[in-house]
Write a structure and sequence with these properties.
This protein is of the alpha/beta class. Helix content is 54%, strand content 13%. Strands 9, 10, 11, 13, 14 and 15 form a 6-stranded mixed sheet that branches. The chain has a 5-stranded antiparallel sheet with strand order 4-3-2-1-7, covered by helices on one side. Helix 10 (310-326) packs antiparallel against helix 11 (333-349), helix 12 runs parallel beside helix 14 and helix 14 runs parallel beside helix 16 (425-437). The radius of gyration is 25 Å and the shape is globular.
């Protein structure tokens, strides 16, 4: 059996721990410790369990156990401080908390393609955007009739990914040519011309089903992401839809991160417009004034290199909108005017791209053009129902149209679709604002705090937190929140901030709350 987690693989047959293609040296006890924790990852393992299994009941000191645990953590890039994969639960025990994918070693009768055999056709050139092949999921149920379920899951994922214009997806007929074969991932890369491969398995037992998936960098064999989903079979099609949405929402940010990391490793002299766009995207995620300015310069370079590439124009529009909302520039209305021009240019170049439509909707929303924003975002969602960014911006539009409950529904869909998205704090902040608008100030405070855990620099969330505290009568907490927000942006004034609060029905309440918190007029 092999267990895959992050970019590691634990091979219990060979008793080897791999990171990518490299064997990580481990002592027998450390390997046994990892093996036992991973096999029993569904529950907490006590010290007595470990002593009984690893040390066969011998009496050992706490120091010896801690030493082995630290060695195990070190072998998989973890530590006692981070506890990213092996978590210690005080007075209870230990648990492996990383996402794990299980896979069997290919059987002797499986069709294995010789990876050293020369292909008669040259390998296709890699596209200039993330490219992925979704391989047929392995049916591990022992029931051939369950193939239809596994195949249907893969077809849904391929269809969902194909709706995104930012990803090149291999068609179903090509990826299903590997069905029933044990194929080397690098061979798939050569034959299909893709950078990433998604593979998985389906296991059905009684009325329950477990679906696993893992995303692999086909060039290096590195595991980028892995997860599993457990459910009942009460409604098989709802289950397929839910898992498909979760898988797409999980791997889309991972693809983006992998592409950014690849672009950042490239030498400057070989960068193209797409690489500059990816580097700008990475800067954008830092959410600071300096990073925003640097990102916009990179976008301008991308535009110079390829004036017909829509994505940099859309990102540039968002950067200017971010600059305006956060008070990072003295440009004021000029920033929004330029953001509108860039968004329109992106739409002219690629008006059927869901990401471009979502960016255009976001800029229209900031300009107060809510009908246009709603139209653009509705089209983005129609073209790509799995685009979390469109759902989140749509939530803000619903909120500004004074429908707090519909807004919360859209934000929650965005959260379910892409819980690992680096911009997810926008959904948390939106839910906080919706609760404030609905008079639920305690709930608003809780969601604003969650947003700030994701992005402590997001001044909008600080302002919502201030408003919720002040309106709920927690004056001291409101003033403490203002002290933090003022450090981020000392130029904030009620007269300016309220103009950016498009919730007209609660504008006076919002202004009064900020006044109580201590923000100057």
């Amino acid at each position: 059996m092999r267990y895959f987690f992050e970019d590691y693989a634990l091979d219990t047959d060979r008793r080897e721990l791999h990171r990518g293609s490299t064997v990580v040296p481990t002592t027998p006890q450390v390997f046994d410790l990892l093996d036992y924790l991973i096999r029993n990852r569904e529950h907490v393992v006590s010290k007595d369990d470990l002593v009984k299994t690893i040390w066969h009941g011998r009496i050992i000191s706490d120091v010896a156990l801690t030493t082995r645990l630290n060695a195990a953590r070190s072998a998989i890039g973890d530590s006692g401080e981070r506890q990213r994969l092996i978590k210690t639960l005080p007075r209870k025990g230990f648990r492996f908390v990383g996402a794990v994918h299980e896979g069997n070693r290919p059987s002797a009768t499986a069709t294995v393609v010789d990876i050293h055999e020369e292909s008669p056709n040259p390998a296709p050139a890699l596209p200039d955007k993330p490219s992925i092949a979704v391989l047929p999921f392995e049916n591990m149920s022992g029931d051939p009739e369950q193939d239809y379920f596994a195949d249907g899951m893969v077809e849904d994922i391929i269809t969902g990914l194909s709706r995104s214009r930012s990803v090149f997806v291999i068609a179903r007929n090509s990826s299903f040519a590997y069905k029933g074969k044990a194929v080397d991932i690098k061979q798939v890369r050569r034959e299909l011309g893709v950078r990433y491969v998604l593979e998985g398995s389906v296991r059905k037992a009684g009325n329950r089903v477990r679906i696993t998936g893992q995303l692999v960098d086909a060039a290096t064999g590195t595991h980028i992401w892995a997860d599993r989903y457990d459910s009942t079979l009460e409604n098989i099609f709802d289950l397929q839809d839910r898992v498909t949405m979760n898988v797409i929402g999980a791997i889309a940010p991972q693809l983006e991160r992998a592409e950014i990391a690849r672009a950042q490793r490239k030498p400057t002299e070989s960068l193209g417009a797409y690489d500059y766009y990816l580097r700008a995207l990475a800067k954008n995620y830092r959410f600071t004034r300096e990073a925003n300015m640097e990102a916009f310069k990179l976008i301008q370079t991308a535009n110079d290199l390829d004036p017909d590439f829509a994505a940099p124009y859309a990102l540039g529009a968002n950067l200017l909108g971010q600059r305006w909302v956060s008070g990072w520039s003295s440009g004021g209305a000029e920033d929004l005017t330029e953001a509108h021009r860039l968004a329109r240019r992106a739409l002219e170049l690629d008006g059927d791209n869901p990401g471009v439509l979502a960016s255009g909707g976001a800029v229209a929303m900031l300009l107060g053009e809510l009908d246009e924003a709603a139209t653009l975002l509705a089209r983005a969602i129609t073209l790509d129902p799995n685009l979390a960014a469109a759902r989140i911006w749509n939530g803000w539009v619903h909120l500004y149209l004074n429908d707090a409950e519909a807004a919360i529904e859209q934000f929650q869909i965005g959260l379910r679709m892409s819980p690992l998205d680096p911009r997810i704090y926008l959904a948390h902040s939106g839910i906080a604002a919706a609760h404030f608008a609905a008079g639920r100030f305690e709930e608003g405070s809780s969601w604003a705090k969650i947003a700030l855990q994701q992005n402590p620099n997001y001044v909008v969330a600080h302002r919502i937190l201030m408003a919720c505290h002040a309106t709920a009568g927690r004056i001291q907490e409101a003033r403490e929140a203002w002290a933090v927000a003022r450090e981020i942006d000392p130029t904030q004034r009620i007269s300016i901030v309220v103009k950016k609060w498009h919730l007209r029905k609660s504008a006076d309440l919002y202004a009064g709350a900020l006044r109580i918190a201590g923000m100057p007029e």
